[in-house]
Amino acid sequence: MATSGNRLKAGIGRRIRFLSRYIKNPNVVGAVSPSSRALSAAVSEPYRRCGRRCDVLEVGAGTGPVTRYLGTILKQDDTLDVCEIESEFADILESEVLAGLDFEKPKEEGRVRVLRHPIQELSPDKTYDFVISGLPLTAFELSDVEEVFDVIRRCLKPGGVFSYFEYIGLRRTSRVLSLGKKRARVRAVSRYLTTNIREHEIARDKVIGNLPPAYARHLRFETA
């Protein structure tokens, strides 16, 4: 069993690797630090409250803070697909996160897997009760955000919930500080997200205990 010192070193190592990937490719990683446990819990709350068997998809898992939390609430017979296109992060998910005790039985039973491809390449036959996203949507082109939302709509079961988080004030700050084509892109993405929030948001949780503070947003596109 790992000592508290070893766990601390492992946590620091994950943060350093996360920051390194952010510096190399900020448009893909989208944050300077992994999500806190508080944010992981907030963005997973609709799934945690579900009392029946569920199929869950996590997108943009990074180094796996949300994945780790999901492991603590994964119910018997539930399935979890974790989609991560960054190879270094996918390696961490498989060798460290899914190696934890919470995932031992689900892995043996084939109920947990890492998908090393974009969400756009998901099998059209696979559907989920919950989709939980850590994708940096505000860093994407509008066409990419629209495509991601289209795929999520398609793969959610009737009444399914899409949960994601965004840092408080980030869209507003980006609109103010960006210039030229980047400002136009940020504004277009922000308008698209705002429209979806207005039309489909069923709940929102404010998480101050995260760096930076964030909203966990929960959307439902169809009724059960």
Could you describe the 3D structure shown?
This protein has helices at 4-24, 26-29, 37-43, 45-49, 65-73, 87-97, 104-108, 142-155, 170-177, 180-200; strands at residues 55-59, 79-83, 112-115, 128-133, 156-167, 201-207, 214-219. It is α/β, with parallel strands linked by helices and 224 residues long. The chain has a single domain (36-219), classed as Vaccinia Virus protein VP39 (Rossmann fold). A 7-stranded mixed β-sheet has the order 3-2-1-4-5-7-6. Helix 3 crosses helix 5 and helix 9 runs antiparallel to helix 10. The chain is globular and about 50 Å long. The N and C termini lie far apart (43 Å).
The CATH architecture: 3-Layer(aba) Sandwich
Let me know the number of strands: 7
Instruction: Give me the strand/helix succession.
Output: HHHHEHEHHEEHEHHEE
> What is the CA-atom radius of gyration, in angstroms?
17 Å
Question: What's the rounded overall pLDDT mean?
Answer: 88
> Approximately how much helix is present in the residues?
40-55%
Structural class: alpha/beta
Could you state the CATH homologous superfamily? Vaccinia Virus protein VP39
Provide the β-strand percentage band: 15-25%
User: How many individual domains?
Assistant: 1
